[in-house]
Amino acid sequence: MDDLTENQTFYESLKMKIKEMDNEIKSIDLKINDATQILTNLQSERVRLESLRGHASALLPTQENESEELVSSRNPETGTTGSDPGSLYSAMNAWHATGDLNNRPKVGKIISDAVVKILLTRLAFDSETRPMHYRTLVDEMHNMGINVSGADPGLNLIAHIQKDKRIVRMKRGHYGLTSWLDPNS
After folding, report:
1. What does the pLDDT look like over 33-44, one tens digit per residue?
2. In this structure, what CATH number is given to the domain that contains residue 154?
3. 144-157 pLDDT tens trace
4. 48 occurs within a structural domain
5. CA dist., res. 168 & res. 172, Å (int)
6. Which residue range forms the structural domain that includes residue 150?
7. Which stretch of DSSP H or E encloses residue 169?
């Protein structure tokens, strides 16, 4: 009988340990849930700040400031500085020079003008290869020194260019100039 009592005591002790471990596991689960909520909040705040940063960056014609000026006037295509009246940079630099917050160039206009400029370089291509994928357009704009902001710059680009009557969706994901729809072009 002694063995039976000893076994029962051992089993009872083991059951108590299991209950203690279950309670500890529940406590850890609660801590994990709390930590997960904190992590989710931090990730949301990070996404919000990245979006705000992207929108602020989109106001700059280049991603880097080369002098003490607020915005660099270097044209990444030519490497020169100055004010070419047809340049995308001249509008931004003129606005920064005046400091007039009410007459700021619209980001959508800058983006659309850049897309039209890029697409105009493709006139020599045949009608099938002339349109460009929106992600390629974003890359080309980046090479020009124009930053498209947002969590997905490609989708942000589409949101801006779909409002412009000069630009049309030629096929899924590919955009061209409205003038290309004319069979004589």
Report:
1. 999 999 888 888
2. 1.10.10
3. 888 888 888 899 99
4. no
5. 11
6. 106-181
7. strand 167-171
